[in-house]
Amino acid sequence: MRIYTRTGDAGQTSVVGGRVDKDDIRVEAYGTTDEVNAFVGEAMTRMDPEKHADMIRDLTDIQHELFDAGGDLAQAGRKRQYRVTAEMVTRLEEWIDRYESEAPEIQYFILPGGSPLSSALHVCRVLARRAERRVVTLTREQETNEEVRRYLNRLSDLFFTLARAANARNRVGDVRYRRDG
Questions:
Q1: Which terms does the record give in the GO molecular function aspect (predicted)?
Q2: Which among 62, 139, 52 has a CA at the least distance from the CA of 99?
Q3: pTM more than 0.90
Q4: 177 near 111, Cβ under 8 Å?
């Protein structure tokens, strides 16, 4: 199979149900979700296989689910069964609760940083927020799986929690926001 097809040279791409412009909100939504997935992979390269085995396992599942989310978002017109479900959102909430117990109670606003791993997970968090914003726009304009929006919302919360747990595991403090700078 060739990587290049030349079918997108005119500025359009295929989605389930037809072709759309490459800057269509549907393409923006699943493309930004793909960006999140790429940065999750990057964050995982910063993890110690023993110290972060549970995070690696959970993030590997998330990578597959983000791929499924992109597939759900790529459906225009002809529909197949969606893959992202409410149960997946509930599971993210369970993971948030588990990882949150590792970090100290939040007493102040936290800036991205601390350890390199925490910083990478914060990048995942802000990208998930951007993907969520693209999906919000998409759901306002076109039909799509609204569970993807909920999933991305909870996923950004999980990345925040994972970033704090990573700092705690590495015995690095969170970076405290100081209004006076």
A1: ATP binding; corrinoid adenosyltransferase activity
A2: 52
A3: yes
A4: yes
The single residue listed with the structure tokens 């100081």 is 178
Distance (Å, rounded) from C-alpha 26 to C-alpha 20? 9
Beta bridge partners of 111: 175
Q: How far from 129 is each of 6, 9, 33, 147, 171, CA to CA, in Å?
A: 32, 30, 10, 15, 27
Dist CA 34 CA 2 (whole Å): 21
Length of the chain: 181
Mean pLDDT in each 10-residue stretch from start to end of the chain (181 residues)?
74 71 85 98 97 98 98 84 96 98 93 96 98 97 94 98 97 91 57
Contact indicator for 139, 149 with CB cutoff of 8 Å: yes
Nearest 5°: CA angle at 83, between 78 and 85?
A: 125
Rg (CA), the chain: 18
Euclidean distance between CA atoms 124 and 41, whole angstroms: 10
| 145 neighbors 72 (Cβ within 8 angstroms) | yes
Closest CA to 152 of 137, 131, 134: 131
Annotate 119-132 with DSSP letters as a single string.
HHHHHHHHHHHHHH
Give the contacts of 128 (CB within 8 A, at least 6 positions apart).
36, 152, 155, 156, 159
CA nearest to 152, candidates 74, 70, 77: 70
